Amino acid sequence: MLIIPFGNKRRANILSTREINMIVKLTQDLARGFAPWKEMFFENEAELNALGARLIFAGSEKDNDNKMMVLIDFDSPEAMKAFGGHEGLKAKRAAAGALLETTEITVMSDQAFTGTS
User: Fold this and answer.
1) What is the phi/psi pair of residue 91, to 5°?
2) pTM exceeding 0.70
3) Out of 7, 17, 39, 75, which could bridge 79 as a Cys pair, Cβ 3.0 to 4.6 Å?
4) Please, how many CA atoms are within 13 Å of residue 92, restricted to the half-sphere of its CB?
């Protein structure tokens, strides 16, 4: 996978040529463990993609299935705002056990990258 810093349009080849725009780390507590959240994600992945976001990684902590971390690649800050403000997806995440009030969002630096060869 290739990570191109947000706002920088030059390309480099690491593992693919897909441009990455804005990586965001999201941490959140879960009330019912990771499995219901994972199921909810796969049921709604197309809607997330339509908003301009793609999942890079999601997983719970090894010793605590009720704490998770997600990395998302957003097309733009506007795509991130659209995701954050999408009431339908908020309700689905909450129904899957996500404790929305515990969400912490961190925008990663433009020096971030994934994968090495």
Assistant:
1) -65, -40
2) yes
3) 75
4) 18
- H/E stretch holding 23 reads strand 22-30
Question: Which DSSP letter does residue 115 get?
Answer: -
Q: How many CB atoms lie within 10 A of CB 111?
A: 7
Q: How far apart are CA 80 and CA 26, in angstroms?
A: 11
79, two tokens: 């795509």
Domains of the chain listed by start with CATH number: 22-107 (3.30.70.100)
The angle formed by the CA atoms of residues 58, 60 and 66, to the nearest 5 degrees, is 130
